[in-house]
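This section describes the prediction task in plain terms. A model, or a person checking by hand, is given the sequence of a single protein chain and must write out its three-dimensional structure as a string of tokens. No templates, partner chains or ligands are provided. The sample shown here is typical of the held-out split.
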Amino acid sequence: MRRLLYTAFLALVLTSFSACFTMTEEVTLRSNGSGSFARTVDMSQLLGMMSMFMPDSLKDSLDFSKMDFNEMTARFVGLNGISNVKSDYDKSGIITLSFDFKNLTALNSAITKGTQKDDITKELGLDATMDDKYISKGRCIGRTASMKSDKTTSELMDMFKSDEYKDVMNMFSPPTMRIVYHLPSPAKKIKTKEKGVQVIKDGNDVTLEYNMLDMFMGKNKKVYNHSIKY
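The expected answer:
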């Protein structure tokens, strides 16, 4: 039953609404190593499309401003080196989580806490794990992350890579993941080992843009592997 539920959910997201989902993570780094982090999930287009097919009596269920996101912020409140934890959400379907960090050790601790399983993933029987961390050396910041998919996720993703589904998947744009760095000084050198990443450099700001589906392909995959010298 859980597998059937997850298959239906994944099929809906990947084939019907994949182009309507964007996640952005912004890291603002100060010269002393402290900074701020913000994660924004934009599902406004997705919810807009869904509302077109829903009766008026159910549209209230898509109003994020009426949902309780205390559990999301509670994971980070009280963590050593983490402060000013906030969450914001609106009726259009944009969710934002933000906090300040004392150093990258604190940021990595928060990232690890944020990837812990929640009730939804436990109910679906998912067991994928992520090893994700920011690294810093002198005037250089980078990020490495690898994902080890559980058996259920791997089998489902293999199914969507098959010839049977390939033509269908090619009809839709993939969901997008953006990592934005706001650096204390202009970026001098950017190294990326990820395939297909788009890099945008604008003074002190560097944006890395990914096809989110690529992150889930394969049983063991390097998701992020980049560094920026400034």
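For orientation: Residues 2-15+23-229 form one domain.
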